[in-house]
UniProtKB/TrEMBL annotation:
SMART domains: PKS_ER
Domain Enoyl reductase (ER): 79-390
Transmembrane residue ranges: none
Residue span of region Disordered: 372-392
Domain of life the protein comes from: Eukaryota
Organism: Citrus x changshan-huyou
Keywords tagged on the record: NADP, Oxidoreductase
PANTHER family assigned: QUINONE OXIDOREDUCTASE PIG3-RELATED, QUINONE OXIDOREDUCTASE-RELATED
CDD domains cross-referenced by the UniProt entry: QOR2 (cd05286)
Stated name of the protein: Probable quinone oxidoreductase
GO molecular function: mRNA 3'-UTR AU-rich region binding; NADPH binding; quinone reductase (NADPH) activity
Length: 392
């Protein structure tokens, strides 16, 4: 058989998944046995040595199974930042309804620390942490429409595993990133910005005339909450630990900044509000602040406890809410982006707020992904402010 007639056949065959190629030599010729891994289709070719050499070289190049080995961070046991291991893993191909994304930038979030420590339990061990990233679609699963290779997409929440050079994602959990927004900016704001959106616009709807208290006002979420609450017409009070963070919070639209490691924040809020208290507290610090936050609320005020960077807060008995008829909620972004429409609307409002200048995104720190452990150390020791991004 002529090589020119064999090659197209081979090309079709090598496109089949996991094609194996075996050779056996006779005196003057080579016997090729090509078959699928399921052994359903087999082809035998008997070729002269000269032809076979050329064909074997071509086939070897074409049948190289794409390994999709990528570098990721993996956690085998809960613990300190040292449990974040930098490893090679095989990620395979996207299945139905899935896409493979090459990450350009990955957002660091405090929730990654909770999973690493075991405060929140991952579905399996070992696991790859990370809840948000922006990347380029490099493969789409069979039959998938609406996403194409080359799309720049963002994702936050949902499947964990963004501390990776590449990852497989459910296509319905990603959103397209507008071309005007830099991927690093988008990665730094997806989870934090969508959190700010649902907290201020849906969980408790902030309106002009409201007074809000934002704990950890210079943090990733805190910085965005301050800017957005100010733009909504609220009087914004923020707490921070250092003078540098206070300057950032002021710049982000905080009308009053309290250094809560030096001052009694309850007394200060009382003073600022002339004893009336605030309409809502957004508290992500948890253990160290929750009781004080409750004390800062006005009659029928809203306590929004959405995080625990200082530790899990002590339980609040229902009776503690009675004297001021308070509302208490412990919301999570996942429950505010359940449907595709909710996800698109929430992300869309974040992107629009960046474009309109309501949100200035502070990417104050970037680390190579391989140094994720250092980023965790710095986040936990309160050395960071604004957003932190990991670059693969
Ligand atoms: N419920 C949700 O859906 C949701 C979604 C996103 C984020 N969150 C929560 O929002 C919070 C903020 O997340 P983020 O990623 O933007 O982090 P972050 O606010 O940038 O970092 C945490 C900040 O908390 C403050 N803090 C106070 N006590 C602390 C302590 N003992 N240890 C460490 N930090 C302490 C620090 O600010 P100071 O130095 O100024 O005190 C620190 O910079 C986290 O609790 C996170 O879990 C919740």
């Amino acid at each position: 058989m002529e090589l020119s007639r064999v090659s197209p056949l081979l090309s079709r065959l090598v496109a089949a998944p996991r094609l194996l190629l075996r050779r056996r030599f006779t005196q003057n010729s080579t016997l090729f046995l090509l078959h699928n891994s399921n052994n359903k289709s087999k082809v035998i070719l008997l070729l002269k040595h000269k032809q076979s050499k050329a064909l074997a070289t071509k086939a070897a190049a074409e049948t190289r199974t794409p390994t999709n080995m990528v570098k990721v961070i993996r956690v085998y046991e809960h613990g300190g930042p040292e449990v974040l291991k930098w490893e090679d893993v095989e990620i395979g191909e996207p299945g139905e309804g899935e896409i493979r994304v090459r990450n350009k930038a990955i957002g660091l979030n405090f929730i990654d620390v909770y999973y690493r420590k075991g405060v929140y339990k991952p579905a399996e061990m070992p696991f790859t942490p990370g809840m948000e990233a922006v990347g380029e679609v490099v493969a789409v699963g069979p039959g998938l429409t609406g996403r194409t290779v080359g799309d720049i997409v963002a994702y936050a929440g949902g499947a964990m595993g963004s501390y990776a050079e590449e990852q497989i994602l459910p296509a319905n959990k990603v959103v397209p990133v507008p071309p005007s927004i830099d991927p690093v900016i988008a990665a730094s704001i997806m989870l934090k910005g969508m959190t700010a959106q649902f907290l201020l616009r849906r969980c408790f709807k902030v309106e002009p005339g409201h007074t809000v208290l934002i704990q950890a006002a210079a943090g990733g979420v805190g910085s965005l909450l301050c800017q957005w609450a100010n733009a909504l017409g609220a009087t914004v009070i923020g707490t921070v630990s250092t003078k540098e963070k206070a300057a950032q919070a002021k710049d982000d639209g905080c009308h009053h900044v309290i250094l809560y490691k030096e001052e009694d924040f309850v007394a200060r809020v009382n003073e600022i509000t002339s004893g009336n208290g605030v309409d809502v507290v957004y508290d992500s610090v948890g253990k160290d602040t929750l009781q004080g936050s409750l004390a800062c609320l006005k009659l029928r005020g809203y306590m929004v406890s959405f995080g625990q960077s200082s530790g899990t807060p002590d339980p609040v008995p229902l009776s503690a809410l009675a004297p001021k008829s308070l509302f208490l909620t412990r919301p999570s972004l996942m429950q505010y982006t359940v449907t595709r429409d909710e996800l698109l609307e929430t992300a869309g409002e974040v992107f629009t707020s960046i474009a309109s200048g309501i949100l200035k995104v502070r990417v104050n720190h970037t680390y190579p992904l391989s140094r994720a452990a250092q980023s965790h150390t710095d986040l936990e020791s309160r050395k960071t402010s604004g957003s932190v991004v990991l670059i693969p």
